[in-house]
Amino acid sequence: CGVFGVVGVQDAANFVALGLHALQHRGQEAGGIVSHDPEQGFNSARRFGYVRDNFTKQSLMETLPGPLAIGHVRYSTAGSKGNTAIRDVQPFFGEFSMGGAAIAHNGNITNANALRRELIERGSIFQSSSDSECIIHLMARSLQQNVPERMKDALRRVEGAFSVVAMTRTKLIGVRDPLGVRPLVIGRIGDDGFCLSSETCALDIIGAEFIREVEPGEMVVIEHGHLKSHRPFEAAKPRFCIFEQVYFSRPDSILSGRSVYETRRQIGIELAREAPVDADLVCPVPDSGTPAAIGFSHESGIPYGMGIIRNQYMGRTFIEPTEQIRNMGVRLKLNVNRALIKGKRVILVDDSVVRGTTSRKIKDMLLDAGAAEVHFRIASPPTAWPCFYGVDTPDRDKLLAARMSEEEMREYLGVDSLKFISLDGLYRAAGQEDGRNNSCPQFCDACFSGEYPVRPRDMIEKGFQL
Ligand code: 5GP
Ligand code: SF4
Ligand code: MG
Questions:
Q1: Which residues have CB under 6 Å of ligand 1?
Q2: Whole-number Å distance between alpha carbons of 417 and 277
C-alpha cells in the first residue's frame, strides 16, 4: 500500500490526491482521503479504482476541504483478498474523548488475529476485515490523554510491519515500526507545510522538498509548522524490506540515500558478473526488469533492446488479486517485438520468479517470435517463502522455488539457462559492500532466506511452518 499526508497548505486533499497518484504502483484496488477543516470538521471519501478516476473530480474534492489531509492507496494482502469491501478501504477514522483521528497504514500486522480476538472479547465492534483497524481499537482503549500518546500505546502492542500516517484536527503524525520494514519519508512544502509519504517520488510530484526518512522506530508529530520526534519503541537493528529495492518502490525514488534506479542497475551489473552468458540481446521484462537489464547490458557489453513491449494502459499484473485475472493479464499487457527477437539469442531479465506462470508465457511468446535461445536472469534470489509484512506473495506451495530446485525450475520454464542473483550480490547492489551480514542481516529478506525478522504469529497459529 501507499500512504501520504500533508499539513499547512490550502486544500491539502488536492495535494494528497496527487501524492497518491504518484504512489499508485503501491496499490491499485482502492484509495481514500480524510481531510480536516476548522469549520467543517473531518470529511472522508473512499473509492474503488485508480486515484485519477476518482480524486480528480471537482465535485468530490470540494467535499474534502481544509489544510490537513491524509490518504491511502490499497492493495490487499491481509484481510479480504480479492473481494475488498469499501469498508476495508483506508484511512480509518475514530472518535475519541479528545477528538477524532484518522490513520492510514502500510504494512501488515502479524498478530492481528490475536489482537482482534482479544479486542472483540472486550467489546470492540470491528467495521472491516482489515488488520489495520486493530490500531484504532487499541487507541480507543488507551487511557492516555492525547492522540499521539494513545497511538504509542496501541503500536507498542502491534507486531509486524507498519508505516503509519495519521492525523488529528491539528496534527500530522508519522510512525515506522522498530525495524523500519516499509518506507516513510518527510518533505517540506511552502513556508510552513509538511508532508509524509511512502516514497520520495510522491514529494516530487507536488514540488515538496525531501527532508529525511522517518527513522525505524520513530514517531514524528507535526503541528503548527514544527516537527517533534519521539521514540516510542525499544531500539532495534533496522531490517528494511529488500524487495522494495528490487521491485516494489518506483525507480525514481530514493531509499536510504540511494536511487532505486541505481540499485536496480547495480543488480544487473552483479548478475552479469555472477552469471554471464554468450548472447545477442539483453531484453527486460518491462517495466520491473528494465533497470537491471540496462545494468546487465552495460556490464556484459551485449546490446540492450526492447524485445517486449508493454501496453501502458494495464496495471501491474501481480497486483490483480485473483489468479484467474492474473493469468489473463499477461497477453493483454505484454507483446513481443518480433522484428527484434527473430533469430536472436536473448537474455531475458526480470525482477522475480514467483509462481512461474508469467515467466513461462513470456518465454513461449519469445520462442513463437523466433528467438534462437532464451536465457533467464532474475534480479532477486529465488522467492521460496511468503511475505507476511505487506507484500502479496502466494502461499508457500504455490511458490515455484519452494517446490523445485534451480534446474527443475529451468526445465519447467523451458529456458536454455536460468540464474538468480545471489543474496550477497543483491546486498552489494543495495549498497552493502561486504554483502549480507549473516549473523545480523542489514535488510529483511525473509521471502528469499526464510529468516523472518518478526515472528509471523497469526500464520504460525494457522499452521504455517518456519
Ligand atoms: P511469475 O513468472 O512468477 O508468474 O511472475 C513473475 C513476474 O510477475 C515478475 O515480473 C513479478 O514482478 C511479477 N509477479 C507476479 N506475481 C507476483 C506476486 O505474487 N508477487 C510478486 N512479488 N511478484 C509477482
Ligand atoms: Fe520485503 Fe520479502 Fe521481507 Fe516481505 S519478506 S518485507 S517482501 S524482504
Ligand atoms: Mg514484472
A1: 247, 285, 288, 317-318, 350-359, 391-394
A2: 9
Phi, psi angles (nearest 5°) of residue 161: -110, 125
Measured in angstroms, how far is the CA atom of residue 387 from the centroid of ligand 2?
Answer: 5
Evaluate whether residue 115 is within a structural domain: yes
Domain that holds residue 311: 264-461
Q: Which atom of ligand 2 is nearest to the CA of 242?
A: 8
Instruction: Tell whether the model's pLDDT for residue 284 goes beyond 50.
Output: yes
Closest C-alpha residue for ligand 2 atom 1: 241
Identify the residue whose C-alpha is closest to ligand 1 atom 16.
318
**What does the pLDDT average to over 184-201?**
97
439 C-alpha to ligand 2 centroid (Å) = 18
Q: Are residues 170 and 293 in the same domain?
A: no
Number of H helices, E strands in the chain: 18, 23
Q: pLDDT band for position 79 (50/70/90)?
A: very low
Strand, helix or coil for residue 334: strand
Residue 137: enclosing H or E segment and its boundaries? Answer: helix 133-141
The set of residues, in sequence order, having a beta carbon less than 8 Å from that of 439 and lying 6+ positions away, is: none
Q: What is the predicted ipTM?
A: 0.92
